[in-house]
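Support case: zinc ion complex. Customer-provided input:
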Amino acid sequence: MLNDQLLEQAVRALDHFEIETPSWGYADTGTRFGKFFQEAAAIDTADKLADAGHVHRLTGCCPSVAVHVLWDFSDASPPAAVAEAAEQHGVRVGSINPNLFQDQQYKLGSFGSPDPEAREAALEHCVDSVRIGQQVGSNLVSLWFADGTNYPGQDSIRARKQRFEKLLTECHGALSEDQMLLVEYKPFEPAFYHTDVADWGMAYLLAKKAGSRARVLVDTGHHYLAQNIEQIVAWLLDERMLGGFHFNDRRYADDDLTLGSIDPYQVFRIFNEIHAYAHDHGGPSAENAYPEIAYMVDQSHNLKPKIEAMIQTVTMAQELYAKAALVDRDRLAGHQAAGRIVDAEEELRRAFRTDVTPALEAWRKGRGLAACPLAAHRESGYAEQAAKDRTRRRKELGITQGASYA
Ligand code: AOS
Ligand code: ZN
Ligand code: ZN
Ligand code: ZN
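Agent response - structure generated as follows:
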């Protein structure tokens, strides 16, 4: 049950919890087998920012938008214009995501490629991305590498590691003082024999070697099924190397389903580690004890309506974050010290079971927001209007659905 004190505790936790939504989550995406188009899907960067602004207006906790250098910037859409469009829609540009996987020259990899020209192009693109960040006032550059090999013997695993060390350090050297570099790991796909940055340990090592402003990015979908993600989070927190998250859920691997749709308890356990860390570093009311973590969504909704899927994910994240804030840390510590295993686990389960809806509603009310962002979105008619406008614009521009124009 949520008594007044717990309600207050949950509401306070939400105050510092901001979630970045990705520009690519608003456009037509699919799987490698095909795309199913949505009339309301964003056509260009301006549409994506408008949709992100709409999500932020409804949820009150998504003030920034992750952008993709290749998909969101062009001559027609330079950094200054993107930043301005974001501002117009009530959001700001968040993490900058270079694209090191689509160009033909990256067939054998980017930072890890045996081809010096490909490596040079990759580094140049990353340094350009760092500069874009500086131009738009974003302090996060987020790196994900598709690099790896498909067959045993294809390339030297150690040589590739060394190439990564060198280029990441060079990329780090381009950062300004307030910029951070995030290094994301993924066990497989698109490389299927070995992936250069395959797990948190490799990302940790590379980030450490790159420089003092590099951290590890944990994408919740990038683990083998049996892996204990909250342990990874706990270790990275303890080493002060946790830079951020990419939220999504999965039944198998990188399925990019909406957060908590398959296993909400997993997400709760991750948040539990973050609240526990903050508690140990300043007590329950010390808000500045929370480490700086970039909470970002990385999902590709090819069947669910895009904005609805985003709102579901954001509100699910808030719900689970609030629940995890309800764990009684002192009581838990007592159970742990005395070896009361069942009571310790029950402390977590009690928090997980608690219905935090009144806390979410109170938090939203305090900000003049509707109690249920999803219902408010449906009532707004935004998606229907976007479908109409964007269908008309596609006709006028003579472009086919699914194409994305920056
Ligand atoms: C790919 O699997 C990673 O999750 C990336 O973080 C992300 O999907 C990509 O950078 C989007 O372009
Ligand atoms: Zn990701
Ligand atoms: Zn992924
Ligand atoms: Zn994913």
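The CA atoms of residues 134 and 176 lie 8 Å apart.

Case will auto-close in a few days if no follow-up is received.
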